[in-house]
Design goal:
With 289 residues, this protein is of the alpha/beta class. It contains ten helices and ten strands. A six-stranded mixed sheet has the order 4-3-5-10-6-9. A hairpin with a 2-residue loop joins strand 1 and strand 2. Helix 6 crosses helix 10. Belongs to the LysR transcriptional regulatory family. Keywords: DNA-binding, Transcription, Transcription regulation. This is DNA-binding transcriptional regulator, LysR family.
Length: 289
């Protein structure tokens, strides 16, 4: 019989790409991970990994087993959620991940609502880029997270994660009437590898040019301060632009950022997850979108 713990390691390898990364996430040694995966291959009766020097990739059978692992591990999470619901109301720690804008604007009223409605819950918040959320949820480092998706950028959550839409907000351009009009400007974007950076690059490409990025800044308040100082143009979401500094004009664009709640597949009915998502929704009417 296949061991779910080993299936989890195989799924992590598919998501993280290296034995070393899986070992770090699972708090094992690399040799222990390799031994567990070798044991899984013996249980499966077919090669799951192709080893070339220090490089390890999944075979077609390995990729097929990962698909089934997502279903198996999702069912186990579903069983855990059902048992938690049978024990009564939500209690204990609930680990929440959020990108900075959501952490600043949405979480304070949401957490106030959550702790008032469920005094037994202990919310624990960590800021995290949405690109890192799937790995954190799979590894159990988070229970639920707020993630965002942009137009022009495909979703970053994987098959092990489910999402529920919460709200959408418009995107704005600083000090220019359109993206096309900013063709010759210096640009301020987030760091490469973030969804915000990818969105800005692709919005410019859709307008027919490659942006000349001069500054990489993740904090939108700092981005707006740079724009106010004439250091470049930038795209900012509505929640980050409710009170722009003097001298910055904002043009609404036909682009949106979409915020969703994310959790492991099968885990969405856990009482703590349901309570957290309900609190997120309760806090939404107070937002200026």
């Amino acid at each position: 019989m296949l061991d779910p713990r080993k299936l989890h390691l195989l799924r992590e390898l598919a998501g993280r790409g290296t034995i070393a990364a899986v070992a770090e996430a699972a708090m094992f040694t690399p040799s222990a991970v390799s031994q567990q995966l070798s044991a899984l291959e013996r249980e499966a009766g077919v090669p799951l990994l192709e080893r070339t020097g220090r490089t390890v990739t999944l075979t077609p059978a390995g990729r097929l087993l990962v698909e089934h692992a997502n279903a198996v591990l999702g069912e186990l999470d579903r069983a855990a959620a059902a048992l938690a619901a049978a024990r009564g109301g939500p209690s204990g720690p609930v680990r929440i991940g959020a990108f900075p804008t959501a952490a600043r604007v949405l979480l304070p009223p949401a957490l106030a609502e959550l702790t008032a409605a469920h005094p037994g819950l202990e919310p624990m918040v960590s800021e995290i880029d949405p690109a890192d959320v799937s790995a954190a949820l799979r590894a159990g480092g988070l229970d639920v997270a707020l993630v965002h998706e942009y137009d022009f950028v495909p979703p970053v959550t994987d098959a092990a994660v489910e999402t529920e839409p919460l709200f959408s907000e418009a995107m704005y351009l600083t000090d220019r009437p359109s993206v096309e009009a900013a063709r010759d400007d210096a640009w301020i974007t987030s760091k490469p590898g973030t969804l915000c950076h990818t969105m800005a690059i692709r919005a410019c490409q859709a307008a027919g040019f490659e942006p000349r990025v001069r500054h990489h800044v993740d904090d939108f308040d700092t981005v707006l301060a740079f724009a106010a100082a004439g250091l470049g143009v930038a795209l900012v979401p509505r929640l980050a632009a409710t009170a722009p500094p003097p001298g910055v004009t904002l043009t609404r664009l036909p682009l949106s950022r979409h915020t969703l709640a994310a959790f492991r597949r099968g885990y969405g009915d856990h009482p703590a997850i349901r309570a957290a998502v309900a609190a997120f929704r309760t806090a939404l009417p107070a937002l200026t979108l």
